[in-house]
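In response to the reviewer comment on reproducibility (Comment 2.3), we provide here a single inverse folding case reported in full, input and output, so that an independent group could reproduce the run without further information from us. The structure tokens appear first.
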């Protein structure tokens, strides 16, 4: 099972001639995924760049596609 948890916090403030305003947003997320049986759970890698989470889950060698030459 792979569980991803995250939290978002944001604050913005602004002013005009006669007004002042403030916005605050926050929240959390929690997602769980069942890994396939051919996944190598101990070699899972994740990176977070420019707001994008990338998770890499390698598979065992037996499950990877292979090429077979067909003789004619």
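Designed residues, in position order:
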């Amino acid at each position: 099972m792979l569980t991803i948890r995250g939290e978002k916090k944001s604050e913005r403030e602004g002013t005009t001639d006669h007004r002042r305003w403030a916005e605050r947003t926050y929240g959390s997320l929690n997602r769980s995924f069942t890994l396939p049986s051919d996944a190598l759970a101990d070699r899972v890698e994740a990176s977070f760049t420019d707001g994008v989470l990338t998770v890499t889950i390698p598979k065992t060698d037996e499950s990877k596609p292979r090429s077979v030459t067909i003789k004619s």
